[in-house]
Amino acid sequence: MAGIGKGAVFEDMLPMMADKLGGDGLIRELCNGFQLLMDKDKGVITLESLRRNSALLGLQDLKEEELVSMVKEGDSDGDGALNQMEFCVLMFRLSPELMEESQFWLEEAMEEELNYRMC
Predict the structure, then answer these.
(1) Which 3-state string (H, E, C) describes the chain?
(2) Distance between CA atoms of residues 81 and 20, nearest Å
(3) pLDDT in tens, 56-104
(4) Which residues does 15 contact at the CB level (< 8 Å), separation at least 6?
(5) CA 22 from chain center: how many Å?
(6) β-pair partners for 44
């Protein structure tokens, strides 16, 4: 689904952000994006809050069906909204290059944890 509307923008920008900010910085920025898009009363991104706030992240050109599709694809628990984890996972899924890099980050973190435990 990397081709959703402006999905190509995510594919171009997220790897660059990851290179500049590192893994922790990228996650912080994704969390900030979540905060901008979420319904403040419900603490999740609803279709309505996505419609209302998408321009804040440069997504104002997305069509209604693309917004609906984003929520459906990211909604892993079936509640009709995106919690913070679902949003971050969706952003990674929209960027295949980051999916590959995240495997590297996971392996690196596991290796560091093993080395720490051996000391």
Answers:
(1) CCCCCCHHHHHHHHHHHHHHHHHHHHHHHHHHHHHHHCECCCCEECHHHHHHHHHHHCCCCCCHHHHHHHHHHHCCCCCCCECHHHHHHHHHHCCHHHHHHHHHHHHHHHHHHHHHHHC
(2) 30
(3) 877 788 899 989 998 999 999 999 999 999 998 888 777 666 556 555 6
(4) 95, 97, 98, 101
(5) 15
(6) 39
pLDDT tens, 7-30? Answer: 444 445 666 777 787 777 778 888
- Please state, in angstroms and as integers, the Cα–Cα distance from residue 80 to each residue in 45, 47, 56, 61, 77, following that order: 9, 8, 22, 22, 8
Place of tokens 């706030």: 53
pTM for this predicted structure? 0.67
